[in-house]
């Protein structure tokens, strides 16, 4: 099983659909997202993703939710948790971004302060991986079905306004 825990709310993506959104062309951005709809259709293993969401939804997160909507259709199980639902787990720091591949390897994905991917820390300890997978199971069970959240919270939103500093 492939797991992904996503906590970051801002990110500098390089996909054409992201770049179209950054240029202020939301319609083109969504069309480009739709054009990638066949990705992941042939996965031979289950994929689960937990997406933590803060309010107000950032332009990045609004864009990413449209990408996730396609992934849900073709290959992934996605659940959404409001950041307030994990606040008891974030006393000292935010939850990390995690990628777990089966029971043998896990990565803590790292980003700099601007949201630029800066690397990953590989974790091979089976006890640590098992403990994290147990926590991911709990978060997934507590999360809201992606489609319900997406239809209620994301679809009605107007096009994001992106400003560059």
UniProtKB/TrEMBL annotation:
Entry-linked Pfam families: DUF6879 (PF21806)
Stretches assigned to the DUF6879 domain: 2-150
Domain of life of the native organism: Bacteria
Identification of the protein by name: DUF6879 domain-containing protein
Originating species: Nonomuraea jabiensis
